[in-house]
Design goal:
The chain is mainly alpha-helical and about 200 residues long. Helix content is about 65%, strand content about 5%. A two-stranded antiparallel ribbon has the order 1-2. It is globular and about 50 Å long. It comes from Salibaculum griseiflavum.
């Protein structure tokens, strides 16, 4: 596959978010709507990118992103045709300047992920195998509200979801294994914190 033919799903998503409108504040709904109501994978990737970015330090931001991820992934499991999220999530706002600053810091990670994406292990990204990464995203997103106060855990789970999103777009099942690794790491952090507190 030549460089010209190589897809750049993460970088393309970030650049589209950076170019959203001219408003001072951007809502999660605006970000998701930019990709269309049937674009489940980009809709899944948006909150994953946001929770991996420095924006995850905003109180309750990881919870909003996690619930969005869990709901979108659950709809993928049940093969819904259109993305739906409750208004309370869609109305979540972030200042445009802060969003763009956080996204600029994601360019390096985006380029690294896009560079290694290839067509591999397709059994994990086509039915019925794709149910596994979809379920992984449901679990990762649903766990974020529970781990709001545990440093880095939500961002690590966000990387798991981002990896699965790249797997879906690039048809690269290797990213499913990468996502599983991030999930395992995300589970170790709260376990370590609880053990430390208990001792």
């Amino acid at each position: 596959m030549s460089e010209a033919d190589h897809i750049h799903p993460v970088r393309d998503t970030i650049e589209r978010l950076e170019n959203l409108g001219n408003e001072d504040t951007i809502t999660l709904g605006m970000m998701i709507e930019a990709f269309g109501p049937t674009s489940f994978v980009p809709a899944l990737m948006v909150p994953a990118i946001l929770v991996v970015s420095p924006l995850s330090g905003i109180p309750l931001f990881s919870t909003i992103c996690g619930l969005s991820i869990a709901l979108i992934a659950l709809q993928m499991v049940f093969a819904r045709r259109f993305v739906w999220l409750p208004r309370v999530l869609l109305k979540r706002r972030v200042h445009r300047a802060r969003l763009q600053s956080a996204l600029r810091r994601m360019h390096g990670l985006a380029d690294r992920l896009d560079r290694i994406a290839r067509d591999r292990f397709r059994v994990l990204v086509y039915p019925p195998g794709n149910r596994l990464p979809q379920a992984m995203c449901v679990v990762s997103g649903g766990s974020m509200p529970l781990l709001e106060l545990v440093p880095f855990s939500s961002s690590i789970l966000g990387m798991a979801v981002l990896s699965c999103s790249v797997a879906f777009i690039a048809r690269d099942g290797l990213f499913v294994f990468l996502g599983a690794g991030f999930m395992a790491l995300g589970a170790l952090i709260p376990a370590y914190v609880l053990t430390t507190i208990g001792s």
